[in-house]
Design a protein that fits this description.
Largest sheet: 6 strands, antiparallel
Shape: elongated
Helix content: under 10%
Number of helices: 1
Strand order of the largest sheet: 1-2-3-4-7-8
Number of strands: 10
Length: about 160
């Protein structure tokens, strides 16, 4: 016997199409690569049971990328990367029914979630003087995500939320 409070039927699909190009400039001590891609992502979902719900979204994004490499000497260089990416919500995050697979942490999805869009900046400096046995390096990683999909916990239930 089906319990409508604890059961659901949800069909979803996610497709992406991407077209991009990069251009590389090379100097004596510097390499610069830049470009990007256009991405169209389509998210569709249909909840058939216990209530009828349809979710359809199309996301159009430009995803830039930049890489700079600066060579200071044969032993030292600096590389910096800037990239962007996207991430769609999962079926569990979209369903607006109670998931009681863990009775201590009930979950409810949010059909209004948007796609995440992440900016990442990475920098790496290396000064490796192998002959004298000295190596110095440093790393910096920064990222920012718009429309972050996270979890909220309360005493009553856990639900997927859209941060703004």
């Amino acid at each position: 016997r089906v319990d409508s409070v604890l059961s659901s039927n949800f069909i979803n699909g996610y497709s992406t199409h991407k077209l991009g190009a990069l251009y590389r400039l090379r100097g004596e001590s510097t390499i610069l690569t830049f470009g990007g891609s256009y991405q169209r992502a389509s998210l569709s979902g249909e909840q058939l049971f216990p209530n009828s719900l349809r979710v359809e979204r199309t996301f159009d994004n430009f995803l830039p990328t930049i890489m700079i490499q600066q060579k200071y000497s044969a032993a030292s260089n600096l590389r910096m990367f800037y990239r962007t990416s996207t991430n769609a919500p999962s079926i569990t995050q979209l369903q607006n029914i109670v998931d009681n697979s863990n009775p201590l942490q009930l979950r409810v999805g949010n059909p209004g979630l948007l796609q995440e869009y992440t900016h990442s900046l990475n920098a790496r400096f290396v000064d490796a003087q192998w002959l004298v046995g000295k190596t110095m390096f440093g790393f910096v990683n920064l990222s920012y995500t718009a429309n972050y999909i996270g979890n909220s916990r309360s005493e009553e239930h856990t639900s997927e939320l859209q941060s703004h």
